[in-house]
């Protein structure tokens, strides 16, 4: 008979009548606990740890120690995993630091290589083709991506350079705005007005389709002025490459202006703007830039409300539409032939357009300017870059507001039917 059985027998014998049980180990105190292993009642921890109860207590402590060891082993494993994770994170940070240093070294090396490639090159006199040949394919792609996205970080850095700001000119037509910024802002000079034969000025209003053609020409004119940062465009004669590029873009955007025989007439403002934008180089016109160009057209097209009275009826400097006439005159000077005194067919067309402007009542030009301003605001609200082709046509048609219903922009009751452009 083992100790546990003897303790249990003594415990059964010591049960009193009132239900209180004496400690089965010391038999001196009433029991307060029960051993979970042998179910013996005991009074204190001393009795539980006594030699008579050692067979059960040692088993209990052995289990507790084993459980504790397992717990500590688990915690040790978690600690090892944590240390391994921290070590891996530290290695990753060191690798990133090393990569940054390598990139910095490569960047410095590329910068030095770029300096070596452009050593001995006169950038001010070199052509754009010569400069592009000195760049790598990656550098060329990076440069043209900046041109296509003026809001990019690289484009903003290039545009904000002090050297560029010191030579850049804002469009000349903005200098006449009330409240235009002064200070360091530099504007181009207003072009001199060309002579318009009085026999071309009609007493009746011009066809609205001809005014839409004028708008198409002005879209190309405002775009080239801002794209090349040349104001006025006739000042590009000092730089042959800029003059050639300005003529190329305008000839590409409005081919009906340079063609000797053209029957192109736009029945709507939207069709005129869409056609010009679709002919420009891909990626050069986005929603924001197109909105700015339309705002430019609104300023150029809008007649002045107050003009000085001039005794010289042939003088156009005091005309309400002198800004619009100046823009057409600037284009005329840009396409002037080398021989003086013999106007080109392009200049004749521009004179014809100027005569149509002089034949149009100011209220009609002011209505068209308001339509252009509303059109610009609608385009600006459109998100994303403008697309080309049918998608651009759909986008611009949806953006264009309807003309004011209280202003009749038709001439002498004529409808907006397709017309044939007539020149003297």
How does this model look, in words?
With 424 residues, the chain is an all-alpha fold. The protein has 16 helices and two strands. It has helices at residues 3-13, 45-48, 54-117, 128-133, 137-148, 153-159, 162-167, 208-228, 240-253, 255-258, 269-279, 287-301, 322-334, 345-359, 362-381, 390-399; strands at residues 33-34, 41-42. A two-stranded antiparallel sheet has the order 1-2. Strand 1 and strand 2 (41-42) form a beta hairpin. Helix 8 packs parallel to helix 11 (269-279) and helix 8 packs across helix 12 (287-301). The longest helix is centred in the first third of the chain and has 64 residues, at 54-117.
What portion of the residues fall into strands of 2 or more residues? under 5%
DSSP strand tally: 2
Query: What's the shape?
Result: elongated
- Helicity, as a percent range: 40-55%
Strands of the biggest beta sheet: in what spatial order?
Answer: 1-2
User: How would you classify the helix and strand content by structural class?
Assistant: mainly alpha
Total number of helices: 16
Mean pLDDT: 75
Radius of gyration: 45 Å
First-residue to last-residue Cα separation: 138 Å
SSE string, helices as H and strands as E? HEEHHHHHHHHHHHHHHH
Q: How would a textbook summarize the main sheet?
A: 2 strands, antiparallel
Q: Low-confidence stretches at least 5 residues in length (pLDDT < 50)?
A: 383-394, 402-424
């Amino acid at each position: 008979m083992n100790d546990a059985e003897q303790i249990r027998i003594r415990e059964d014998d010591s049960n009193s009548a009132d239900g209180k049980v004496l400690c089965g180990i010391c038999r001196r105190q009433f029991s307060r606990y029960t051993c979970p292993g042998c179910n013996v009642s005991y009074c204190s921890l001393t009795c539980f740890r006594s030699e008579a109860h050692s067979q059960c207590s040692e088993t209990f402590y052995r289990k507790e120690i084993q459980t504790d060891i397992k717990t500590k082993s688990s915690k040790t494993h978690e600690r090892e995993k944590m240390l391994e994770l921290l070590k891996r994170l530290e290695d990753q940070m060191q690798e990133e630091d090393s990569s940054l240093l390598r990139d910095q070294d490569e960047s410095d090396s590329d910068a030095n290589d770029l300096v070596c490639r452009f050593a001995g090159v006169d950038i001010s006199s070199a052509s754009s083709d010569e400069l592009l040949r000195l760049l790598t394919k990656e550098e060329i792609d990076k440069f043209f991506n900046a041109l296509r996205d003026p809001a990019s970080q690289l484009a903003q850095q290039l545009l904000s350079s002090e050297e560029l700001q010191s030579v850049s000119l804002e469009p000349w037509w903005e200098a006449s705005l009330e409240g235009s910024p002064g200070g360091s802002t530099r504007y181009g000079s207003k072009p001199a007005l060309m002579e318009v034969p009085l026999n071309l000025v009609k007493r009746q209003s011009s066809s609205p389709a001809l005014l839409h053609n004028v708008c198409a020409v002005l879209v190309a004119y405002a775009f080239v002025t801002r794209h090349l940062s040349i104001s006025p465009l006739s000042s590009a004669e000092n730089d042959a490459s800029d003059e050639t590029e300005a003529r190329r873009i305008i000839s590409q955007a409005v081919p009906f202006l340079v063609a000797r025989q053209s029957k192109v007439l736009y029945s709507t403002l939207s069709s005129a703007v869409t056609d010009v934008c679709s002919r420009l180089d891909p990626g050069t016109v986005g929603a924001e830039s197109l909105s700015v160009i339309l705002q430019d057209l609104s300023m150029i097209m809008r007649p002045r409300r107050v003009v000085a009275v001039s005794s010289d009826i042939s003088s156009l400097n005091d005309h309400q539409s002198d800004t619009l006439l100046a823009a057409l005159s600037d284009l005329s000077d840009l396409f002037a032939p080398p021989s003086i005194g013999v106007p080109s067919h392009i200049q004749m067309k521009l004179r014809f357009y100027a005569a149509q402007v002089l034949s149009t009542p100011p209220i009609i030009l002011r209505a068209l300017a308001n339509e252009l301003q509303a059109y610009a605001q609608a385009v600006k609200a459109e998100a994303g870059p403008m697309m080309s082709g049918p998608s651009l046509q759909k986008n611009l048609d949806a953006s264009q507001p309807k003309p004011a219903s209280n202003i009749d922009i038709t001439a002498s009751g004529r409808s907006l039917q397709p017309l044939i452009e007539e020149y003297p």
